[in-house]
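Before we proceed, please read the two lines closing this message. Report back on whether the structure tokens fit the sequence:
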Amino acid sequence: MDIRGFLDYLEKEKKSSENTLMAYKRDIMAFEKYLSQHGVTIEKASETDVIGYLMDINKAGKSKATGNRKLASIRAAFDYLMKEGKVSKDPTRGIKTSRATRNELDFLSLEEVEKLLALPDDSIKGKRDKALLEVLYGTGIRVMELIDLNYGDLNTKMGFIQCTGEHGRPRIVPLGSYARTAINEYLRDSRPALLRDEEDKQREDRPLFLNYMGERFTRQGLWKLLVQYGKKMGMEGRITPHILRTSFAVHMIQNGADIKTLQELMGYDDVQAMQVYLQVASTRIKDVYDKTHPRA
């Protein structure tokens, strides 16, 4: 496979960063090495070959998140090969990504988040999508909490939204500066164009985020939108509302947030629900200790 051509494709068409390019290069070179050991080139690889490689990764003790990332790299490679006319069929099409276990968090790196948030353009749809993504990542709210937001739940001047959790308990969630900027642009340039009725602009009971029909997003509609952006990133199947919520939590912990505050922000009634994040917190505490204690 022409690795240089593949990397040029990722850089020019997928707008991948330098770190992402290097990660994809390593993944594809490792896959090609596995294939060569079995007398197969990537252009002749079958679904069985891809599954066998992923099983080898699993046997080596690698995490499901690592396996999913490598599958995403291989998918991107076959996207390129199909575009170049080198293959007629994508052997990864029928392979599903693995679900992470309860104790194994799958989250995006900060670089991946920044890449995702940079994808929407300046069109009506793009500004709406930018606001959606900034709110999902910037607040960590659940997908249904975002869908259920009404115009009256937003206070951009004070910088917060009010959402209702799983058990009907309302909570106030702060909006960061990036989310506030994106929402203000959406309210100014996009939402008025999506509303069918001019009188609905200031109605507090109207949905905050609207689809092209001028109606509230459905769960399926939002998932479809994220799938489209996942494909643009070469991470098909991985970009979901939940991974943005998880990434919000992990990045908060990595930057010093405590579990109790995070529990309040995410709307968990029981601190036990935060157990999955304790490992991240423990790792951070150990890192801080190792770096700062004179006798560590």
